[in-house]
Amino acid sequence: MSKNIDWANIGFGYMETDKRFVSNYKDGAWDEGALVSDANVTINECAGVLQYAQTCFEGLKAYTTEDGRIVCFRPDLNASRMSDSCKRLEMPVFPEDRFVQAVVDVVKANADYVPPFGSGATLYIRPYMFGSSAVIGVKPADEYQFRIFTTPVGPYFKGGAKPITIRVSDFDRAAPHGTGHIKAGLNYAMSLYAIVDAHNQGYAENMYLDAATHTKVEETGGANFIFITKDGKLVTPKSGSILPSITRRSLMVVAEKYLGMTVEHREVLFDEVKDFAECGLCGTAAVISPVGKIVDHGNEICFPSGMDDMGPVTKKLYDTLTGIQMGKIEAPEGWIHVIQ
Ligand code: PLP
Ligand code: COI
User: Fold this and answer.
1) Half-sphere exposure of 283 (CA within 13 A, CB side)
2) How far is the CA of 59 from the centre of ligand 2 (A)?
3) Of 19, 61, 183, 216, which residue is the catalytic one?
4) How far is the CA of 170 from the CAs of 195, 203, 207, in angstroms?
């Protein structure tokens, strides 16, 4: 039985659900893992995650389709991106097939929290891993914990699909040759000062430029950028220091194969941004959130699509992507993983 939650009015926050998946790595091997009820984690005061931020995470969503199934979107890509994060952080990989199975198990165990079709909410799934054993010299921990919890969520930005205003950040999120492409706790910690400062000044997010030259568009704190040119092409930044967004990679296929658009995945100079017709942020949490205005130290870039509504091309991308995710539009082979 679906929980009695006011789905249409939940924001993007944490709500404890019934079960979470936990597996421990010790003596060079992962245990079989289990679904547990306790939402709290107890670890040593000197755990690798607490001292040297040895941790990474993933994010994906489960959806109820119109015909009542529960599905998730491309979990294999989250599994493989998490492997990449783990390798870069000297953590043991949780086997990718077991990752996908654990996602299925934990969503099934919390099926009552998967919001109904058309409610505007979804079940956010958060796999993560951290060094759990004590480590005082700068080196990797010996023991790790892999966990997955779920929480129902609404829109990431207040106002749902209404365009947001963002600003060009003065603060870098990652070092010039840093680990921005790894979905790791430390990168996000490095963005917290900038996000609090942006919010205090009335902006919804930061546009980070490349840390080496501050001339190229990278991403925001939690999403990649998409731009639409005046002649209807999709342009999206290519950079080794941004997160390889699964939503962005999927949208490139949707644009080309479903909407017949030309797609350019390339370096994007900040100087070009004023010439685009539409701008949006894309990600699991952001879905596609339209950007109406970018403020660069007092200079405003306003997109012709305006501050009131999502631009027309962004809207087509949004409708097609969410239509695929919610089972209304036929998905490319392998994109939809049926849970139950
Ligand atoms: N960029 C950052 C920094 C993110 O945190 C996220 C969210 O995971 C994304 C981009 C979007 O990635 P995805 O589409 O895989 O959720
Ligand atoms: C996601 O979209 O899954 C993210 O991780 C973005 C943010 C909530 C951290």
Assistant:
1) 20
2) 6
3) 183
4) 11, 13, 9
Distance 317 CA to ligand 1 centre (A): 17
Q: Which residues contact residue 4 at a Cβ distance below 8 angstroms, ignoring those fewer than 6 apart? A: none
Q: How far apart are CA 259 and CA 32, in angstroms?
A: 44
Structure confidence by residue, pLDDT tens digits, 137-167: 999 999 999 999 999 999 999 877 789 999 9
Whole-structure pTM over 0.85, yes or no? yes
Active-site annotation holds for 183: yes
Instruction: Give the position, in ligand 1's atom list, of the atom nearest the Cα of 187.
Output: 3
Q: List pLDDT tens digits, range 215-260.
A: 999 999 999 999 999 999 999 999 998 999 999 999 999 999 999 9
Ordered by where they begin, the domains of the chain are 7-153 (3.30.470.10), 164-325 (3.20.10.10)
Would you say 193 and 253 are in contact if contact means Cβ atoms under 8 Å apart? no
Q: Is there a contact between 161 and 310 (Cβ–Cβ < 8 Å)?
A: yes
> Ligand 2 mean position to 310 CA, how many Å?
21
Q: How many whole angstroms separate alpha carbon 261 and alpha carbon 310?
A: 18
| Contact present, 150 and 107 (Cβ < 8 Å) | yes
